[in-house]
Design a protein that fits this description.
Order of helices and strands: HEEEHEHEHEHHEHEHHHEHHHEH
CATH class of one domain: Alpha Beta
Strand content: 5-15%
Distance between the termini: 48 Å
CATH architecture of one domain: Alpha-Beta Barrel
CATH topology of one domain: TIM Barrel
Shape: globular
CATH superfamily of one domain: Aldolase class I
Radius of gyration: 24 Å
Structural class: alpha/beta
Helix content: 25-40%
Amino acid sequence: MSQLTTIEKLEILADAAKYDASCASSGTAKKSSLGGPKGRGGIGSTEGMGICHAYAPDGRCISLLKVLLTNHCIFDCHYCINRKSSNVRRARFTPQEVADLTLSFYRRNYIEGLFLSSGIIKSSNHTMEQLIEAARILREEHDFRGYIHLKTIPEADPELVHQAGLYADRVSINVELPTDAGLTRLAPDKNARQIEGAMKGVKSSIIEAKDAKKHFKHAPRFAPAGQSTQMIVGADSANDADIVGKASVLYGSFGLRRVYYSAFSPIPDASAVLPLKRPPLIREHRLYQSDWLMRFYGYSSGEVMAATGADGMLPLDIDPKLAWALKFRETFPLDVNRAPREMLLRVPGLGVTAVNRIIAARRHRVLRLEDIGKLTVSIAKVRPFICALDWRPTALTDRADLRKMLAPKQEQLELFAA
């Protein structure tokens, strides 16, 4: 068998990494490449623009080299294209090769950081050591100050996971599936309690590092951008209510920065226990919207779950916020001149920015419907749920066809349209 070139390895291992969605770099501290403890300039920065791989919540474009250390794996997770029983082309980088690639790409302004994950080779501890070594080479030998996200392995020794956090800006441990039953059925080599134990350890280390930083200026940092996780959507029978409930528990128990949702994608030579079709991508989008409601709009998981149908699924034709408003119409209409901020955030069509503008504007004058129209993108979705000085929706809020009126219009696209 001929030896693969670096470019051939990169082609295989970058493609294999595309299934991992948890690579956004929001939350990291902005670092300058000026100065440095060794009296010379450091390499890398988390600021700037480049090839876009992910977006931070503040709108910054984050360019990352997203790659696996190897796609060899001793585990046999049914949903994973890199499982040991899968017939895929295999490749493997050394930690030095990963470091060299990262530096080479950075110097060409292709990337601003590294997202590194891996299949499990030999053992969980051995693989974790290899991931850490790649980060160590970058940080200690090259004074690399760009963003590093390491995918950690819950089965590895806790001390190794801790070492990863000392080098990485963010660490992530994937829970994989929303339910214990789904994990047992589709990932027999993984254990839900072991995953949660590893996440708990990371949370404790983050808290301890923050506390130490308050008392000691040069205390070592630990994953300053926090930890994240990922759930696969549609590979098992879990409905949206199950997924929302699981996400809420993860946020509350482990202080996660993000839970990422990844729609299951059918893979070659798939196991018979997997569905033949992928779920609609709009389902993934609705879950992200529900996640946003819990994180930024003050909704509890129970309220988001209440927006689901009898089958526990979020509607696909309308967003979860509108679904909740239509289900609890007795809450509306709200007076934009008097309603508190937390209630205005529940008005469909009003985002955080629009609500903040309304609250600022009503300090100076009584708002009319025209004023609200100037503070938001579209007034049509808002009108049935608010009152203003010159506007009351009367029977509009209770119309039987209100959902049909507000749902986005479905359009048939032309295949050969100019």
